[in-house]
Request: fold
Amino acid sequence: MIKVTLLVLLVLVTVSSTLGKYIPKTGKRIPQTLSRGWGDQLIWAQTYEEALYWSRSRNKPLMVIFHLEDCPHSQALKKAFSDDNEIQKMLDEDFIVLNLVYETTDKHLSPDGQYVPRIIFVDPSMTVRADINGRYSNRMYAYEPSDLKLLMTNMKKAKKLLKSEL
Reply:
């Protein structure tokens, strides 16, 4: 009886864990190592140059996430970010995404310093959207797990600006 109960419990846990994640319209994708845990079902650019090319050719805004694997703030944001189905869906459908664990040579991507985690938006004309920022005056592009609603608002702003300005 105990074995049957444990088996049923194991099946329920397995089924419930697979139903909670966002799954793209095209079906479940093979997880990419480029996601680094930020959204395994998303298609991630490998380099900044590749991301700019995809953004321009597909006419979608680019979201660049700077983080470090051993940073507790980056880890906390990554967990909240990857668990938020609404953010994952919008990124999959409307954005080009890139996450970096190193700084780029483009100084426009660090307008107020090099800190992690930070999220920068770039439009398809390759303009860094320095006007789309978080709530902190000393780290303008930083987000915390509690800031996901603001991040979602900024993502919508990046999409809206795209349609009205280009």
Summary: The radius of gyration is 18 Å.
